[in-house]
Design a protein that fits this description.
The protein is built from three helices and four strands. The chain is α+β, with helices and mostly antiparallel strands and about 100 residues long. The strands form two sheets. The protein has a two-stranded parallel ribbon. Strands 3-4 form a two-stranded antiparallel ribbon. α2 links the parallel β1 and β2. It is globular, with a radius of gyration of 14 Å.
Length: about 100
């Protein structure tokens, strides 16, 4: 979630440029609320706890399998990345990485 802290650091600049920041995660609402409070995150953190949206967007990390012991904790996580959406709510670009640690 380091990327979220970095985004918060430039959030005012992004707002001034006309952008809005939202983040989606498969973490439960309570985890996201705690994280936002701890790191002074002011933009919306959206919970997709069953990864339905993550799956629908085709960005669920397929390298993490549900049957690999410790990785079960990470199952359902999205590839790290960003969608760029214009004022008409159209995706104009995207930037994603395959490895969950690269953000």
């Amino acid at each position: 979630m380091t990327q979220l802290v970095q985004l918060q650091g430039i959030n005012d600049n992004l707002k001034e440029a006309g952008y809005s920041v939202f983040a989606i995660s498969n973490d439960p609402v309570e985890v996201l609320q705690d994280f936002a409070a701890k790191h002074d995150i002011t933009f919306p953190l959206l919970s997709d706890s069953d990864s339905a949206v993550i799956k629908a967007f085709g960005i669920m990390n397929q390298l993490i399998r549900p049957d690999e012991g410790q990785s079960m904790r990470w199952y359902g996580i999205a590839y790290p990345g960003t969608y760029y959406v214009d004022a008409n709510m159209m995706v104009t670009d995207k930037d994603f990485h395959q490895h969950h640690a690269r953000r």
